[in-house]
Amino acid sequence: MDLFASPDSLTPIPIEDGELAWLAQLPLPYTNAEVLARLIAETPWRAESVFVYGKQHLQPRLVAWYGDASYTYSGLRLEPLPWTPLLATIRDAVQDVCGHRFNSVLLNRYRNERDSMGMHSDDEPELGPDPIIASLSFGASRRFILRHKRNKRSLPLDLHDGSLLLMRGQTQQHWVHGIHKSTRPMGERVNLTFRYIV
Ligand SMILES: O=C(O)CCC(=O)C(=O)O
Ligand SMILES: [Mn+2]
Q1: pLDDT of the chain, 198 residues: tens digit per residue
Q2: What are the domain boundaries of the chain?
Q3: Per CATH, which fold does 13-195 belong to?
Q4: Measured from the CB, is residue 106 less than 6 Å from ligand 1?
Q5: Which atom of ligand 1 is nearest to the CA of 191?
Q6: Whose CA is nearest to atom 1 of ligand 1?
Q7: Cα–Cα distances in angstroms (integers) from residue 107 to residues 14, 63, 92, in the given order
């Protein structure tokens, strides 16, 4: 079955050298506002330092890592927290829509417009070749930029409250993505990227 062809689920976003699909609102047994408030309140958020080009930096966002396996990200080893009932419910809803299983989730909390994520690919060896990554957003809309590694073409996507973006196929091989800082005041946003650690 081609899950990308089902009209009541994900809509494909055509891009070269990759596969993207999108759903405006993931069906959940809670409102988006309830999920955002609970994720902010219940998560042991961490401000992590990472090594980039041999220098230590504090990441401009807060993070938490949940799941069944540890993960190395920009030289940072993250030991997972056990799934909470809320995160397990969300994971199951994401799995139903994507037709794919996930065993880990990285939570990123962007406190305001000054928080960001640098351009990168989710291509760590633990993710295996052609990883499938489901990105779910709550709270303030932020612009997610995809940029093709070779021809530098860029695709901006506004990821709004409750939306789900699926990246799969060769997307991580050929594209980088990230969230820029903004000068316009913005509220809190929490993004969850569901992954499968091999
Ligand atoms: O916050 C986002 O939308 C992007 C998150 C992301 O790229 C990541 O966690 O690897
Ligand atoms: Mn990413």
Answers
A1: 455 544 358 999 999 999 999 999 999 999 999 999 999 999 999 998 888 888 898 999 999 999 998 777 667 677 899 999 999 999 999 999 999 999 999 999 999 999 999 999 999 999 999 999 999 999 999 999 999 999 999 999 999 999 999 999 999 999 999 999 999 999 999 999 999 999
A2: 13-195
A3: Jelly Rolls (2.60.120)
A4: yes
A5: 1
A6: 191
A7: 27, 5, 16
